[in-house]
Amino acid sequence: MKIVSINAGSSSLKFSLFEMKEEEVIATGLFERIGMDGSCYQIKYNGQVIQEEVELLSHTEAVKVLLDKLIVLEIIHSMDEIKGVGHRIVHGVDRYQDSVLINDKILHDLEDIKSFAPLHNPGAIMGIKAFKEVLPDVVSVGVFDTAFHQTMKEETFLYGVPYRWYQDYGVRKYGFHGTSHKYIALTMKDLLKKDNFKLISCHIGNGGSICAIDNMKCVDTSMGFTPLAGIMMGTRSGDVDPSIIPYVMEKEGKNASEIIDDLNKNSGVLGLSEYSNDLRDLVDACNEGNERAILTKNKYVRRIVDYIAQYYVLLNGADVIAFTAGVGENNIVIRREICEKLSCLGVKIDLDKNQTRGEIQKISTDDSSIAVYVIPANEELMIARETLKFMNR
Length: 393
Ligand code: AMP
Hints:
Elements: E1 2-8, E2 13-19, E3 24-32, E4 40-45, E5 48-53, H1 59-72, E6 82-89, E7 100-101, H2 104-112, H3 121-134, E8 139-144, H4 154-157, H5 163-169, H6 178-192, E9 198-204, E10 208-214, E11 217-221, H7 244-252, H8 256-265, H9 268-273, H10 279-287, H11 291-314, E12 320-324, H12 325-330, H13 332-341, E13 361-362, E14 371-374, H14 379-392
Parallel strand pairs: 1-6, 6-8, 9-12, 12-14
Antiparallel strand pairs: 1-2, 2-3, 3-4, 4-5, 7-8, 9-10, 10-11, 13-14
Helix pairs in contact: 1-3, 7-8, 10-11, 11-13
Adenosine monophosphate binds near residues 206, 234 and 331.
């Protein structure tokens, strides 16, 4: 049975076509610049890459072109082969503790909570509507980045602010990257052949979050009301003192949303290093003796270690630390430095095993007090699995 995982943004649509339950990737691709000049697509299948500029005025057109190309390229023989479409939705506030079968009522509700993720949810809604228009009878499932974190306790998700901000405006920690953290927990469950373990999942890519997981349930996570909170990221600041905002607004004559934009796009590794948001470039610059790069790398590592240490205490110990996403899967130096800073907890990294990229690998020594793993992220597969659950019901 074929299932498509969709990650739609306001002008893009990323897809992965799976054969389920086999979990086999048949094709992947990306439609970009939808509704803009120079719109194009790329489809990868069977070791080939097809790319073309094509006018895409809307998400619906992108979906039509996608299905047409899948047939022309003989990746599928007819649209009827696609039985389910799973959509990544960044924000589900506290209304969605799990994935959901999308109907008109849910779509209406998603419109209602759009303001919680104005940069992300509207794109997802466009993607959902486009598939509903082109494939009206196919099962459509929403998979929320926030859902996995809905097991956090009130004392964890509340901020120390007036309680009515929570009651009246929904001000609380929601957490993100939940689909990825859940995938890491499930992969560790398969590897360890049990589910009663304490896991600190480190999703560190351009965005990044750490998640404390006990018995397969999220206990705490580093992102907050928005994905701006937590560790320092590629271009996002992570946690800062909020009083900085009005102070810099006055200094630079900017408004609040311009400063938030700076905190999202011009801060983090890029802002501090004034060099690059890419950790590969940063590590290279460190090796060339660039002092600001060294400072930035140290700060980046420090913030991750801070959260791991915090969650170690919260979980009352940990069985596993797992690294995932671009940096976690590939950056040997950053992983080593994080693990070395955790040596006081008894973490011991195996330097040879750590020479790995993009594959499942245990990178701690046998006598390490906490097992450390690299697990490649696969949110697309997780979305396909969630979609499959509804087909089986
Ligand atoms: P993501 O947002 O998950 O795509 O992660 C982006 C980050 O992953 C960037 O900082 C890259 O430096 C890092 N990254 C991706 N691929 C590699 C690689 N092959 N080696 C080292 N770092 C990588």
